[in-house]
Design goal:
By secondary structure, this protein is mostly beta strands. The chain is built from no helices and 6 strands. It starts with a strand and ends with a strand. The relative contact order is 0.30. The model has no long low-confidence stretch (mean pLDDT 90).
Length: 71
């Protein structure tokens, strides 16, 4: 579906990806591989129920976490 990328400038820690949702019901629709950043859709969208989704993709190096919104 999509792959997210992040860089850790100090290179001493490996990065881990995670998702934070503004609507908890969306958790069952999306999954991100914590190592590769691969985002997958777990089931089909139902446009009659919801027409758009917002969540945050986060990268964490065990010291700092940075999150960016996805609309």
């Amino acid at each position: 579906f999509f792959t997210f990328h992040a860089r850790d400038p100090d290179l001493h820690h490996s990065l881990h990806f995670s998702l934070n949702f503004t609507d908890e019901r969306d958790e069952r629709l999306f999954h991100i591989d914590s190592t590769t950043g691969d985002l997958v859709l777990l089931r089909s969208f139902d446009r009659e129920t919801k027409s758009n989704y917002t969540f945050y993709v986060c990268a964490d190096d065990e010291l700092h976490q940075t999150c960016a919104p996805v609309h």
